[in-house]
Amino acid sequence: MALPYRKPQEGRDYWIKDDFLPNATEVFERCVAREDWTYGFPHRPEFWPGMRAPNGLLPEELDRVECWVKEKTGAKKIWQEQTPEGAMLNHNWIQLVGEKESGPRPHTDSRKLCRYAGVIYLSPKAPARTGTSFYRLRLGNGALGGNFVPPPHANIPEALGVAKMPLEAWSEDLRVDNVFNRLIVYRADLVHSATSYCGIEHRDKRMTVVFFWMA
Ligand SMILES: [Fe+2]
Question: Which of 76, 81, 106, 129 lies 20 to 30 Å from 115 when distance is taken between CA atoms?
Answer without folding.
Answer: 129
